[in-house]
Design brief:
Helix content is 42%, strand content 15%. The chain is α/β, with parallel strands linked by helices. It has an 8-stranded parallel barrel with strand order 1-2-3-4-5-6-7-8, surrounded by 6 helices. It is globular, with a radius of gyration of 17 Å. It binds 1,3-dihydroxyacetonephosphate.
């Protein structure tokens, strides 16, 4: 069996003014300094805070990432941020293809793939998000939807070192509804199997996160599942103690 170091990632989404963000990071850094951890911890603040949060995390093990990036390095793309810009201010990761981006900005798998490729070219780890809607699950299409999203969103050259996959069933995000452990286990096993198409045997080392209403009281059970290698946490990542408690659920 391959040991995969769990990744506990916080997606702050469009939340956090400077004071909130810095306080949150201070609290997490204090916890991380209190001892050695058997997990990696990442926060993805809004773009406005990436530089300051990265500066505040310097000298600690806390990783900092963006929530999205453009597929291009630079140019006439008003309002967008490139992976190179995130890297330049201290990010080591970037989320791509979150379902809120897929929905709000009509991002296709092809767009997500281009963004992940840009993240790699810039030297960032791409956290590629996939997940079915409730209608798709009800129609029995969860596995086929997730498989096609995975295979169409992973760029050439994706490896377990430069890529993390996050399975986030859309219906479980921000709703308090968590997928059952059996459902999560089934989808994660399928993701690892399909990832072999892209990475061969290296897929055994790929980290696959679960996201969707992860809280301190359900984290342990989810994180104990064989192919669950961490969590992508929204709401509960905005509170130091909740986010820290989730990380304590790592096996
Ligand atoms: O979308 C998510 C993380 O990217 C999950 O959000 P919640 O944890 O708030 O359900």
């Amino acid at each position: 069996m391959t040991a995969r170091r769990p990744l506990i990632a916080g997606n702050w989404k469009m939340n956090g003014l400077r004071a909130d963000g810095l306080k949150l990071v201070e609290g997490l850094v204090a916890h991380l300094r209190s001892g050695d951890q058997a997990f990696d911890m990442l926060v993805c603040p809004p773009t406005t805070l990436v530089a300051e949060v990265a500066a505040a995390a310097t000298g600690s093990t806390l990783l900092v990432g963006g929530q999205d990036c453009h597929a291009k390095e630079k140019g006439a793309h008003t309002g967008d941020t490139s992976a190179w810009m995130l890297k330049d201010v201290g990010a080591s990761c970037v989320i791509v293809g979150h379902s809120e981006r897929r929905q709000d900005h009509a991002e296709s798998n092809a767009v997500v793939k281009a963004k992940a490729g840009a993240a790699h070219a810039a030297g960032l780890i791409a956290i590629v998000c996939i997940g079915e809607t409730l209608d798709q699950r009800d129609r029995g299409e969860a596995l086929s939807v997730v498989t096609s999203q995975l295979l169409e969103s992973l760029p050439e050259g994706a490896t377990p070192e430069n890529t993390v996959v996050a399975y986030e069933p859309v219906w479980a995000i921000g709703t308090g509804k968590v997928a059952t452990p059996d459902d999560v286990a089934e989808v994660h096993a399928e993701i690892r199997k399909q990832a072999r198409e892209k990475m061969g045997d290296d897929a055994a080392r790929l980290r696959i996160l679960y996201g969707g209403s992860v809280k301190p009281d359900n984290a342990k059970e989810l994180l104990a599942l064989t192919d669950v290698d961490g969590a992508l946490v929204g709401g509960a990542s905005l509170k130091v103690e909740d986010f820290w408690a989730i990380a304590q659920g790592c096996p």
